[in-house]
């Protein structure tokens, strides 16, 4: 890609992003989702986060590593356990980063 193609792509992404975000501001008052969709949208953040974290935790170097030497996997499992037990997201993040950092330092 040359310079003008980069700028065309950037401006196109900007226009699409603005159109999507502005549509919720303009049509937000009149936009009503069915009840089942409202209930399903509640789980979208967790699903997106899982889709982003799972590949990194399972295969940080490009190959699947399920050993306890994989600090990403151990930190993720600890975060899931803490969040499941307490339901506190910030606590889960802090504890999992502490475990991850400790394992990276020790190994």
Features:
5 helices
Please explain how this structure is put together.
This is AzlD domain-containing protein. Keywords: Membrane, Transmembrane, Transmembrane helix. Pfam families: AzlD. The chain crosses the membrane at residues 6-28, 40-60. With 107 residues, the protein is mainly α. The protein has five helices and no strands. The longest helix has 25 residues, at 3-27. The protein is flat, with a radius of gyration of 20 Å. It starts with a helix and ends with a helix. The model has no long low-confidence stretch (mean pLDDT 88).
Summarize this entry quickly.
By secondary structure, the chain is mainly alpha-helical. 76% of the residues lie in helices and 0% in strands.
Give the averaged pLDDT, no decimals: 88
Q: Give helix and strand order, one letter per element, not per position.
A: HHHHH
Note the main sheet: none
The low-pLDDT segments are none
Please count the beta strands (DSSP E, at least 2 residues each): 0
Total of DSSP H or I helical runs spanning 4+ residues: 5
Distance between the termini: 42 Å
- How much helicity do the residues have? over 70%
Structural class by SSE content: mainly alpha
Global morphology: flat
Bin the strand percentage: under 5%
Q: What Rg, in angstroms, do the CA atoms define? A: 20 Å
- Oligomer kind: single chain
Pfam families: AzlD
Organism: Chromobacterium indicum
Protein name: AzlD domain-containing protein
Keywords: Membrane, Transmembrane, Transmembrane helix
